[in-house]
Amino acid sequence: MDMPGHLCPYGLKSKALLRWQGHEVEDHLLTTREEVDRFKQEAGVETTPQTYIGGTRIGGYDALRSHFGLPLRAEGETTYTPVIALFAMALGIALAAQWAAFGSLAAGRSLFWFVAISMCLLALQKLRDVESFSTMFLNYDLLARRFVPYAYFYPFAEGLAGLLMLAGIMTWLAAPLALVIGSIGAVSVLKAVYIDRRELKCACMGGSSEVPLGFVSLSENLMMAAMGAWMLLG
Q1: Is 73 left (phi over 0), alpha (psi -120 to 50) or beta?
Q2: Where are the beta strands (DSSP E) in the chain?
Q3: For residues 36 and 30, what is the distance between their CA atoms, to the nearest angstrom?
Q4: What confidence tens digit (pLDDT) does each residue in 36-61 have?
Q5: What is residue 212's DSSP assignment?
Q6: Which of 12, 36, 98, 156 could form a disulfide with 110 if both were Cys (CB 3.0 to 4.6 A apart)?
Q7: How far apart are CA 227 and CA 178, in angstroms?
Q8: Among 58-62, 136-140, 141-145, 178-182, where is mean pLDDT lowest?
Q9: Do 140 and 190 meet the contact criterion of CB atoms below 8 Å apart?
Q10: One-character DSSP codes across 178-211
Q11: 186-208 tens-digit pLDDT
């Protein structure tokens, strides 16, 4: 559908996908609301665009992706993609900082920076909607379930610890903060997932996260706790 003031993004996506799959595209633009309504009625469909291949109607963009074996993730379906992307970006930033500071990608402080940057990025995801995060967090965190304000405190504590670790200052605050919240988080995840066998979504990426609670959240908390302990002992 192409009308003044409106450009259909799914139409553009559908054309790009068809061309990527080696199809020639014959585009029939609907330029008025009347044309759109008439097409929907004649085709017996509720949405546009609609794709036809060889005279057979495939459907909208989602149906077209499924036709080519590229289905989109269903609403509510769990995925590790967001957290993988976050950790990959954190690693990239850490390596870039390592190169800028030392002109080398060898050891140095890249691992330390990776953990600190990951904490900051994870805190940012939670801080986008603290209310939503706290609701999801209360499903499994042992301390938050006994003392609700901790659910609101946690993302600020994680972000502050990450920033202080990244700056290399106030270790007396950053280290115990990371150790305490990381340890509580790790125990909470272990109990919820591996002892109680509950299937929950992780609040690590914020309240709207579709990441399953388990190894990823456990790794986040163990990483914080380990870094906090290392700083205290170092």
Answers
A1: beta
A2: 2-3, 6-7, 51-53, 56-59
A3: 6
A4: 888 888 888 888 888 888 888 888 88
A5: B
A6: 98
A7: 7
A8: 58-62
A9: no
A10: HHHHHHHHHHHHIIIIIIS----B-GGG-TT--P
A11: 999 999 888 988 877 777 777 67
